[in-house]
Amino acid sequence: MSEGKPPLIASLLRTLPAARLIETHISWVIVSDEFAYKLKKPLDLGFLDFSTLEKRRQACEEEVRLNRRLAPQIYLQAVPVTGTVVAPRMGGEGPVLEWAVQMRAFPQDATLDRAERLMPEQIDAIAERVAAFHAEIAAAPEESEFGRPDPVRRPVMQNFVQIRALDPPPEVLAPLQQLEGWASAEGERLKDHFVARRAAGFVRECHGDLHLGNIAWVDGRPLIFDGIEFNPSLRFIDITSEIAFLAMDLIHRGEDRLAWRFLNRYLEFSGDYEGLAALRYYMVYRAMVRAKVSGIRASQEGSGTNDYGECISYLELALRLAEPSPPALMLMHGVSGSGKTVLSQRLLEDLGAIRIRSDVERKRLFGLGPLDRSDSIAGGIYTPEANQRTRERLLRLAEDVLEADFRVIADATFIDQAWRQPLESLAEAHGTAWCIISPDVPEAILRSRVAQRARIGHDASEADLAVLERQLERRQPLSGKERQHLVEPKGDEGRDALAREVEQCLGLSPSLP
Which of 129, 249, 254, 364 is deepest in the core (most CB within 10 A)? Predict the structure, then answer.
C-alpha cells in the first residue's frame, strides 16, 4: 500500500488504524477507521501553490472554512502532523512536519462517481441543495477582480497552455487547437454578459469543483465536499459556471437525461435563466479542466500510466458541447391534470431542453418558491394583473433561452389564444421551429388527477376541481395554423415514440437511437 509513496505518507499508513490511501493529482487522503486526513502535495502547478509548509497550512485551514458551508458534519479542523517521519502522529506538540485536514470518514463507495446507477431523486435533491447554497453565499467583493471579463477568460485559456506543457501526444493537440479558437472567440463575444452578471451579483464564492466525485450520498441526502480552497479566483465564479461542471460531468458519464434534469431542477429553484447565455461556454471550460486533470495524472512521474485516453474523451466532449443543437419552442397545451408537466419532464430530458413553468414563475413573481403555497399572499396570485405579469415573464424567459441557442418548453395551460400567440410569434421572429403538444385526456381522468394532486399538495400547481371546471368552460380551440404544428400524445405511447414525434414536427434530426 505504501510502496512508492513519500516516507511520511508511508509511515502514516502504518501508524493510523485500518488506514487506506486515496491519491489525487494534488493530495493524499488517508482514510482511517473513524477519520480521514487529507494532506497536500508540495506542488506548484500555476493554478495552485502548495510549495511551502506555510502555504499548505493556510490551504488546510481555508479548506475547512469553505467546506463547512456544505458539509459541516464532515469537516472538523486543520491538524498538524507532529512527531518524526518514522513515528508521526496527528496533532500534539513539537515541530510540525506537515498539515492535514481532519474529516469524519464516510464510505468510500458513497461518492456518486462510483454509483452503478444514479436516481432521478438524487439529481433533484442535489439541484435543490446547490440552488439553496447559491442563494446564501457571498457575492464577490466589489473591489475585487473576480468575475470581470479578463479574469473569467484567463483560466479558460490557461487550460490550453497547461495541457500543451505536458507534452501530450498528437491526438491531444489536434482538438486542442480547434477548441482554443472557439474558446477565444466565445469569450470575446460574452464580455458584456460577464460584466452584467458581476454587476447583478451572480459572481459568488462557490464550491468551485462540483462534479460527481465530490458528491456523496449519505443517509438519504447529498453530501457535497472538497470545494476549491487553493485559488479564490477558481471559486469566486458565476454560479452558472458551477452548475455547468456537474451537467458536463453527467454528460461525460453518458447520463444526458439526468444532466438536463439537473439543469432544469436547479433553474426552477434558482430562477437564474439569464445565466444560460454562457452555459455552453462554461461547460466546455469544465470539460477542459477535466481534460487537464486527466493529462496531469497521465504525465506525473510514478503514476503508472501514460494513457491520455480519458483526456481525449473530455476533449471530444468539449467539441460536442461547443456545437449547439438547433433551438426550438415547444408549447405544452391543456387544462390542469392533462399530464403536461409529466410529458414535458420526459421531453426536456430526451430532447435536451429548458422548461419554463407558469406555475413556478407566477410564484416567483411573488417571492415564493416552487413548492410554496400562495395562501399567505394578500389578494392572491391569480388576479388579472398577476396573469399579465406571468405571461410577460414566460415570454421574456423564452426569448432569453432561445437567444442562448437552447430549446425551450413553455409549460402552461395555454387554453387562451392570447397566451399562445406571442410565443408562436417569438419563435417565428427568431426563425425557430415550434410545435404545440396537447394531450387529449378524458374529463373523468382529469378530475381524478386534479383531486389526487390537491390532496397530496406536493406540486407547483395549486389548481383544484373548481379551477379545472373553469378551464374546461373557457378553453379556446386551436387555429388551423396551430393544428399544423400539433402533436397529440396518446396515453399508451412510449416516451421514445413521443420524442420522435415531436422531433419530426419540429424538423429536427432524431436525438434517440
Answer: 249
Average pLDDT for the chain: 93
Terminal C-alpha separation, the chain? 45
Q: Half-sphere exposure (CA, 13 Å, Cβ side) for 282?
A: 25
Per-residue DSSP letter, 325: P
Give CATH superfamily name and number for 112-321.
Aminoglycoside phosphotransferase (APH), C-terminal lobe (3.90.1200.10)
The answer to whether 402 and 427 are in contact (CB under 8 A) is yes
What is the architecture, at CATH level 2, of domain 328-506? 3-Layer(aba) Sandwich (3.40)
Q: What is the CATH number of domain 7-105?
A: 3.30.200
CB burial readout 177-188, b (16+ within 10 A) else e: eebbeebeebbe
Judge whether residue 512 has pLDDT over 70.
no
CB distance 178 to 211 below 8 Å: no
Three cell numbers written together for 224? 457535497
Q: Is the predicted pLDDT of residue 19 greater than 50, yes or no?
A: yes
Q: Where are the domains of the chain?
A: 7-105, 112-321, 328-506
- Between 143 and 338, whose confidence is greater? 143
Q: For residue 509, what is the DSSP state?
A: P
Other beta carbons within 10 angstroms of residue 499's beta carbon come to 19
Would you say 12 and 29 are in contact if contact means Cβ atoms under 8 Å apart?
no
Give the separation between CA 448 and CA 465, rounded to whole angstroms.
9
Residue 499: closest CA among 355, 354, 351, 356: 351
